[in-house]
Amino acid sequence: MSNVSPMPKEEGLDHTLSLAREGYLYIPNRRHSFNSNIFETRLLGKKAICMGGKEAAELFYDEEKFMRQGAAPNRILQTLFGSKGVQTLDGAEHKHRKEMFMALMSQERIEDLINLTRNEWESAVTKWEGMDEVVLYEEVQEILCRAACHWAGVPIQVDEIKARSKEFGSLFESVAAIGPNHWLGRTARNNLEKWISGLVEKVRNQELEPPENTALHQFSWHRDASGDLLEAEVVAVEVINIIRPIIAISIFINFTALAIHHYPEEKVKLQSRDEKYTEMFVQEVRRFYPFFPLVAARVKKDFIWNGYKFDAGTLTLLDLYGTNHDPTIWDNPDLFNPERFSDWKGNPFSFIPQGGGDYHSGHRCPGEWITVEVMKAVVDQLINKMEYQVPEQDLSFSLVSMPSIPESRFVINNVKRK
Length: 418
Hints:
Structural class: alpha+beta
Number of strands: 10
Strand content: 5-15%
Order of helices and strands: HHEEHEHHHEHHHHHHHEEEEHHEE
CATH architecture: Orthogonal Bundle
CATH class: Mainly Alpha
Helix content: 40-55%
Strand order of the largest sheet: 1-2-8-5-3
Mean pLDDT: 93
């Protein structure tokens, strides 16, 4: 194979601890030091390939070359994704399951969720007016938990909201955690799957009748490519895969509030209620601030790309954060500048805060549309519907902790409705 070149390689027996120590910057740091968008390392005792940038993202989402089955470590399956969920599937099975999700993403249904979110937010403001201080991250998780459960057809009692929202939050907060916090995530996963599985059984026994256009109804009666109903436990995983990402928008909303606070000139622009500028602002929040650092796949079959050999079965990680801060894609990527999206063409491989590629056939998150619309609705609430003050607090955020959240969870006080 004379056309094969040696891949830049990180020396050493294993670099799992380096990944944990450096977090979002682990891959970008090495892309910079190797002056290469691709390098080989060792993680969890095995060879791994890390890569970033637009061309790497295009390669990563080529389903002829990469597969998701067996890519996610067990600790991620036991917290974030759940077993046998859509993220672990490939090929025709994945496409069939993905269609189940995409069926919920009509404009009408998304508008339903946005209206639910607005209503829950306005109710929360009434409560916040009587509070000495409001920890926005925690309050927003409860708002989104109520809205998401209602939208998904999942009945939830008022006295359950706080505990359930913490359990859903723990699924994505515990992914990279070690020790007790990781086990909190596993316990939360078990509790939530048991709860939703019980609801699925009630739906199938006709003891519970959620609206037909909701996830709980549609997933409970969904049949796989062989014509069989999904196992109740798998339905539970997929219903959670609808609710969890909506609640995870709380991370972006915290950063939205942070951006409004840190860049007061943006607040003036947003007060005009120019929908295009609001969307530009929201997209820049999603690009600029950390969400999830990377995604994983395995090489499906041996192939050569740009002179480098990829061996079947090799774990491969795509750098999400680094690609969104890649200076070959973005001018001055470390500056917060919504104007960069004024003439953006929507390339699915250069802007990948929630993954890349195609929504319908690929592994790009189908909830990305929801994320953008929820964030736009929240911007309107923060800018035009309420007044508040931001007291002294620690608003720093780490590029080591995954996911990253402002240290203080963004505290506000003296809340008043406009």
